[in-house]
């Protein structure tokens, strides 16, 4: 499957670029999203340390009002389908954040998130 192989290579290069450990997400792991993610709005992603069934990724847009009950939990494969440009960053390890959309992308490591238990 060339598509998956290509995605894994791109994710590895992304991790190398940011000198981060390659920490891939299994396609069955879950991602937390807010409204607006599937619709293509600019978003912020943050990866928390998480149990094995979760990827640790939370993807939110400006549609998120801070009410966690409004968030949805979806399989990683849905992110690849609806937001393939986001999948590039998904192998970054816990503690990483990224902003995508708008003027440019921005990726950074957040020590506080990495140490969140």
Low-pLDDT regions: none
Q: How many domains comprise the coordinates?
A: 1
What is the overall shape? Answer: globular
Q: Structural class given helices, strands, pairing?
A: alpha+beta
Helix content class: 25-40%
Order of H and E elements: HEEEEHHEEH
Q: Would you write up a description of this structure?
A:
The radius of gyration is 13 Å and the shape is globular. It has one domain (2-114). The termini are far apart. A hairpin with a 5-residue loop joins strand 5 (96-100) and strand 6. The chain has 117 residues and is of the alpha+beta class. It contains 4 helices and 6 strands.
How is the secondary structure organized here?
Layout: H1 2-17, E1 30-33, E2 43-47, E3 54-60, E4 72-75, H2 76-82, H3 84-87, E5 96-100, E6 106-109, H4 111-114
Parallel strand pairs: 1-3
Antiparallel strand pairs: 1-4, 2-3, 2-5, 5-6
